[in-house]
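Predict the structure of site-specific DNA-methyltransferase (adenine-specific).
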Amino acid sequence: MPEPLLKENTNLILVTESKRKAANGKLEPKTKSALGQYMTPANVASFMASLFPEPVSKKISLLDPGAGVGSLTSAFVDHFCKLYSNICIDLTAYEIDSVMQEYLRENLSLCKTSANLKKCKFSWKLINRDFVVEASRMIASIDSLWKEDVEKFSHCIMNPPYKKILSSSRHRLSLRTAGIETVNLYSAFVALSVLLMESKGYLVAIIPRSFCNGPYYRPFRELILKYTAIKRIHLFDSRSKAFKEDKVLQENIIIALEKNAEQGDVIISTSTDDTFSDIAISDYPFSSIVKESDSEFFIHIPTSPDDILELSENFRHSLSDVGINISTGPVVDFRMKDHLRQMPEKGAVPLLYPCHFKKDALVWPIENGKKPNAIMTNSDTKKWLYPNGFYTVVRRFSSKEEKRRIVASIVDPRLLDGAENIGLENHLNVFHKNKKPLSENLARGLVVYLNSTIVDEYFRRFSGHTQVNATDLKLMTYPSRHILSKLGEWAKLHAELTQEMIDNKMESFSK
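Done. Here is the predicted structure for site-specific DNA-methyltransferase (adenine-specific).
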């Protein structure tokens, strides 16, 4: 490599970026998907490196698990050697892909040359072993009788792979030896790295936002909150821009954690995309990020300093306070194929799917539709049916075209041919009272509340994906039963409710 390429501060980043693009072009799509490989663009890598605080020691022990071609390490070396003189960076990098390793070795050699030019030192070792298996073994050994001498790290920068962990997989078994329960490789990488950090060690990662809520990531959230302080979270307003080359649609965040540090205010920043040209930054008390009373440890990420739901006492009731239950629809259609009917017939009752709700209203039956409209009533199905009546339903999956994450509709029994019972399909969340109907006013009031902009903004603070789980809705706060009924009375006076009408009405109750 000609020396002039490394004389300017930015050249290390540019050279690494060119190698990243070259390596990305060589990866087989199937292999990339199987390993969850999405390499970090230069702008994102440089921004992540800038989030580390000034080092307290001249000696830095850096961990880069799943190092790829070394984009994050290159950005780290470039940033630290540019700002701090005479530092020594000792890197441990894990990478198992042979295509990546070829480029990674070249880039780590460039890092060493670049560091020397800036009067810093850089050394590295590349480990060609599975990080999850290896790190789990090391962590398990810390508490074992033979006590392996495990290296601890002062810094960690990562873009871990995104892939579900099967319950019977080698990874799941390895993680359990380290006392870690989680469902995705990205959360496994973060959890393991946290446990390998020394006290006051600093970790910066770009990961999906899906860990912020839901029951499956609860052990991971608990581990993070037990061992680290959340220092900063960065969000991208555009869901697809952080990894646009790989067409990753999952919403990603950049998070900075400090091991064994006192939890204080959390810095939340946002930018439209990975150019970081319009960053907005605010500080939030930790009590607005994780609620003290929340046993699920949901992580809320405010997008604006003004949060009506936090300010209003009228919206601080739990569903149990209001006397309402929520469940996923009990009818799982593929398990009841023999009992489904395309159109209503004698002995059958209405079966409602998300497609039966158009613009918050019920449309049933749908002729020539893709989904059945009815289910037979018999000894095999009766226990899965609800009495006909007023219910509020929320789709578990919102479509790409919809602006709101939460899309609520009402089940109006008058539109269901006087049926005694109804079936509610599993892709719906159902608000009910002990599996019985709600009053009309209460059901309509819930629809108004759930379809408001302030609820949508509130939900987006802790949910980074389009799925809406019953647990998420259960743990939200609600207006009192009285206010919900008042909202329902108001809704009945209007044939159609616009978003502006809903939001204005909600604002009148939030003061």
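The longest strand covers residues 197-208.
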